[in-house]
């Protein structure tokens, strides 16, 4: 699809309007992509996340939802935080919850008038979502959104060739 790019890169170095953070419920940083974004973006992101926790999300950001903060020291203008499902705990709602991560992030980006956004592979790290299944959900969700709004450029950003290859292979024929 013309508005979708698949690449190997460091998501913290993406020069886009918004990068998506595969956050945990606490919004206070963690490992993987979440930790990398918080470290690279600096204290400003954490400070805004703490404010969100004391106001809008006192119990944490629900799975599938998304919220936005500044991007701090990143090249991007915004960080859109979304909480993916833990694969062993989401029962028969895994696909729906993962799809919501992508759709809700794209809705926020659209509201912010972003024309470019970069996604990591949400839930495929410690949350254990099988990479090939997650790829199909991610691609279908983004493609569906872009069918109604083709003004945005969407990047799927992978940190390794093997993860990128799994994604490309999984979406063939979709």
UniProtKB/TrEMBL annotation:
Every Macro domain range: 1-174
A Pfam family: Macro
InterPro entries in alphabetical order: Macro_dom, Macro_dom-like
SUPFAM superfamilies: Macro domain-like
CDD domains assigned: Macro_OAADPr_deacetylase
PANTHER family associated with the record: GANGLIOSIDE INDUCED DIFFERENTIATION ASSOCIATED PROTEIN 2-RELATED (PTHR11106), MACRO DOMAIN-CONTAINING PROTEIN (PTHR11106:SF27)
Name assigned to this protein: O-acetyl-ADP-ribose deacetylase
